[in-house]
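Protein 1 of 2
SEQ + STRUCT:
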Amino acid sequence: MSVVIPTLNEERNLPHVFAKLPPMITEVVVVDGGSKDRTVEVARQLRPDAVIVQQTRIGKGNALACGFAACTGDIIVMIDADGSTDPAEIPLFVDKLIRGDHFVKGSRFSHGGHSHDITRLRKAGNDGLNLVVNILFRTHFTDLCYGYNAFWRSVVPALDLPDVELPRPADGRKLWGDGFEIETMINIRAVTEKLNVGEVGSTEHERIFGESNLNTFRDGFRVLRTIFSEYGRMRRRRRAGIRPFVDSIILAGITPRPRPAATAPSAPAQPAASTAATRHPADPRRDTGLINRARPRATDDLGLQPTQDLSAARARVLDEAGSRTTLED
């Protein structure tokens, strides 16, 4: 299981973020955008096995795309380096993924979520943007602009991010998808490609050190532009007869594999505590249904039967993530 952390001058925040990463994380991918401080050195000190990636252009979108390309885990989680997203919540996202969702996003405004950072003006703007998206795309988003997401690595092609090998435009502009529009863009593309998209409640904290680069009006208009751009893209693809990604999805690596004999238990395993027992003690969460209005198929979209095979897949994912807990149905 991989976690992607975009960074830019975050040396003072990384100790807090790394300390809260759960044991199930087996790969930490730190994508640096040219930090002038000791961000990279601190990351290596805290986690010698961390994968350090230098992004190829500029912008958070390019950083995430570079990070996704470097991941090797079956599951990818994207969090922020400033401490605003709580890594201790990762098991909640993973639980929904191994129960059948393809893509899971955090929500600060529903299902037990909360924000210690958002202003009334930004909250009003977010509500308005949510309404626009839910009408245009027939979705049930409760928090469109939050960037705490987790998904199966096999669905990354559905997000259709700009190629990380493309050169930066000569005039200095960002390619579409390289900037902060990435968070809105991937959320919308996940639903337009008919992936099973779920939400979990999440608590957003204030940045620990440093100042945010967010600008309420500038970034609000950027998100609005992204919404209408993605709506046009969706309509063009439909007119061209391009089928949604989910129709051809093959989640490679999820098919259960026999546990190696060396690690097989010598006696029947005792029932383990549910993942719900690991929920953040101060902020209990609630699972949610799908954001997509269409209901899931009777046979799980992962290509597995929704009983024995899926249970085995859950056990395998958690085993590879370093966890000894077997999820119960």
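Protein 2 of 2
SEQ + STRUCT:
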Amino acid sequence: MALGGGHGLAAALTAWRRLTRELTAVVTVADDGGSSGRIRREMPVLPPGDLRMALAALAGEHPRTQEVARLLQHRFGGSGVLAGHPVGNLMLTGLTEMHGGDSVRALGVLEELLGAQGRVLPMAEVPLDLVATVASTDPDDPQDTRRIRGQVAIASTPGRVREIRVSPADPPVPDAVLRAIAEADVISLGPGSWYTSVLPHLLVPRLRQALEDSPARVVVVLNLEPQPGETDGFSPEEHLGVLLAHLGGVSLHTVIADAAAVVDRRGLLSAVQGCGAELVLAPVAAPDGAPRHDPARLAAALASMVGAR
């Protein structure tokens, strides 16, 4: 099972599918920008963008299903009302409306069309808003903070995030998500936008309780570099520290980090061992130097962690 959103979750799913077909993605539903933001403002549905990306990452290998996946990802051009909308966002929105607002059922239809090697589920049954407390960038008033609402606004606001929460505070979670967590052998968090894609799963009470009760091995994949607007200047151990502050009773077993991205290996190892986990340092970044995880390399690191071959 993989938790997250956006490109980070897609990277994790692309790696995991090399190891198993019994794969479930639990996807954040707090996106309020771009096509997803436009749709959620006009329709009573979940923002479809991150769900669409997860579906495309799990599409089957047959040329026909790959063509459908490319269609889902295709964005309309031009300057009209459809400009910028990915086809898949509109398809998922239409299917949700056809099925009386049942997003899980709508996702199931697209999974069949894609021959998906796994399942995609939303982390909540209603759209979420993220609310962050952001530190001031004014050197004359470093204690000043601002409250910022919305994923896009949080990511684009200068200053470090000190606290983040979801609204509504206790949203309903699909039963299918709770069952999947209870049955999972391994649960991965990250990579991805730390405050807006990874941490939200730990802020939903029913979701976090299910994670606390789960017997699964929990693995965290750290980002390759800080994200502008969210984690400027964060070291790998600072990323981990923020996560640990939100884990509550969720056990952490393994932390995977790119060997070349870690400057202070002793500091990271100390932080990992301090929470009773093991550290896996491996070359998981793309070999061309781009700041993205390579699916084959990440799959190898995950395989070594779970004992797969």
